[in-house]
Design goal:
Blueprint: H1 3-9, H2 11-31, H3 41-56, H4 65-71, H5 73-76, H6 81-111, H7 113-124, H8 127-131, H9 139-159, H10 162-174, H11 183-192, H12 194-200, H13 207-227, H14 235-253, H15 263-269, H16 273-290, H17 292-308, H18 312-315, H19 326-357, H20 364-379, H21 395-407, H22 409-424
Helix pairs in contact: 2-6, 2-7, 3-4, 6-7, 6-9, 6-21, 7-21, 9-10, 9-20, 10-13, 14-15, 14-16, 14-17, 16-17, 19-20, 19-21, 20-21
Length: 426
Amino acid sequence: MSIKELASRYRYPLLLLLAGVVVLVLYNRLLQLDQQTFLYPDAGNYLEASRNLFVYHRGHPYRPILVAFLNGLPYLFGGDDAAVLEWSLWLNAGCWLATALLLLLQLRPILGEKRAFWCACCFFMLPGSAVLTFHLLAESIFTLCLVGFVGLVQSYKASGNLRHLIWSLALVTASMLVKPASMFLAIAALLWFTPTLWKLWRRRILWPLYGSFFLIGMQVGGLRYEFGNYTISYIDAVTLHNYLLSRAVCEAEGKTYSQEHNPRAEYLFSLPPKQQKEHAANDLKDQLQHHFPYVVKAYVGNLSNNTSHGAYAVKDCQNERHSPGFGSCRDALYAVSIWQNRVLTVVGSVVSLLVLVRWRRFPFYVVVAAFVVVYTVALSGISCGQGDRFMVPLYPFYLLLLATIWKYRRLIRFSVRLRKASRSHI
């Protein structure tokens, strides 16, 4: 096949990649992203985890081995911390572009190729997602894992090829080693497909899934050996204690919660990881028994916080080149990220609930995407103060769900009219 034929056949994916690169260059130009020197605390954690894995050959209590391995590959070739930070840009940008390509493939059956292309281009217009590619964080990798999971489920339902199903389950299971937040999502997916997996458990087709289980076993066993607990990560205990439960204590005492000035967090970090987990578990039990209404209030407050703020990675940019108009441009992009988070999260959550209620009327992979949205939004209530980072992995799914509702709008209108007609005859 000639280059001309290849370009003609794959013109929309190639145009999408080109558009994505142009958008990244534009964001970099407007926000001087390559000149920024600040490092978020979570980025320091990821850097430390990679250094632990490749330099000191040990684990990290908060960041699992897969994300540490992917980010820390430069250490394998003699690189230093600066090389890891530079590599993370290429890794995150590659994952970000691959996410857009997978979104294009998922939108094709719904909108057709041309409309799917323009809808996928909307993903590039979300500054919160794009700007995070310039930081040593896991959102870009994690987003690709989730979108890849849904895309492989789509391929399995379209072709009936069991390999696509196994790889989808292997991917969502391995995503726990990128961000442990996907643990219950992976468990739900495995339980849903248990009847199929049970018939295949002796066949080599399951080796990718067994590989994911092996990596999880390494992670869990390593933390048991180093820190004393069989767990994927201690980050869940820290997040629960320092955000949800600390906010609940502030609500009970009539104080304003502050992430930066949190004596409970300072005390927790003074403990070794095993005691952190025990202390957080005891604190949760105590507050559920004695301050349950305040825990609920704190949870709702966290949900509101996560769905109403914009991209702090935009807001925190500094005018390193002293360019005129930088502040206005930064503030405008931050305002865009705020309203994108608010509108897309509210609309996307409502559409997701609609799809889940009427799940038999929609393609199965869209139902899976809706479940991912509801699961992630609900889980975000345990944390706060991160801007739109919790919602960034959901942006591709919001576009997919909105496209689905647009296609099935006539069916939805017909269902509503039919229901009204049936009620009028009662």
